[in-house]
Write a structure and sequence with these properties.
By secondary structure, the chain is an alpha/beta fold. It folds into two domains: 81 residues, Orthogonal Bundle (Arc Repressor Mutant, subunit A), CATH 1.10.10; 205 residues, D-Maltodextrin-Binding Protein, domain 2 (3-Layer(aba) Sandwich), CATH 3.40.190. The strands form three sheets. Strands 3, 4, 5, 6, 7, 10 and 11 form a seven-stranded mixed β-sheet that branches. A two-stranded antiparallel ribbon has the order 1-2. The chain is flat and about 70 Å long. 36% of the residues are buried. It holds the Pfam family HTH_1.
Length: 293
Amino acid sequence: MFTLDRLRALAAVAVHGSIAQAARSMHMTPSGVSQQLAKLEREAGHPLLEPHGRSVRLTHAGRILAGHADRLLAQLAAAQADLADLGDEVLGPLRIGGVGSAVRTLLPDALAALAAEHPRLTPTVVDGEAVDLLPRLLSGELDLLLIESWANRPLTVPEGVTLRTLVSEDVYVAVSDRHPLADRESVDLADLPDTVWACCPPGTEPYEALVQALRARGVEPGIRYSVAEHLTQLALVARNLAASLIPAMSRHPAPPGVRFLHTRPPLRRDVRAAWLTLNESPPVRACVAAIEA
């Protein structure tokens, strides 16, 4: 029995022409995609891929099965959309995933408004980073994401995902009020060559944005503290143990002893809603509208 995840992997290779690019589009590792395809070949009873230079290409059997996979996945998405739009009622489950700052700042008021207006809607929320949440959206485990995109490192999403910017905000360097540059209004990252940093874990959007921003100014980042929560990062900043890049919505509440300096050149972050285009449902539309309101 062919599984949808394996058929999605084959369809992605057919579109992108390589396992590596298919893996990036699905936010999986190449080895994970290869494992899915190996299982699918055993189930199909035919080789589906063959070497082609330094990459691979679909065999005749692979092209036949990929065509069926495309039609099946499109039909499944259409069925889900039809059921979701039935009567255009805002009811049933709405599974939301979001980065912590957006969950804390944007969601509570929106969820309260939805509870009052649509009492038959049952939202659930998990927090996390885009690198972990996007695969769960693509697999159908989540319906709506609130994820971040940094101007110096824009977020890329696979085809078939709709993005809508909800908030665009400045990013600040947070330093202790005992830091030598704490009396400035702004700071060039090039002026922080020996700074210890606190940041979200490697692979996350904030981590990659910090590394890219510092290296663009000729500074090799010294990230000593890898913690997900901005409030924990600010606790380290307050004790003069580290500096941190903090988006505007995460400045409050900040512990005493923290100064927020504008960056030169300016850094900005967007918080965006993301959902599968073919799975846009009344609950998704209602939630996005509530946040925008």
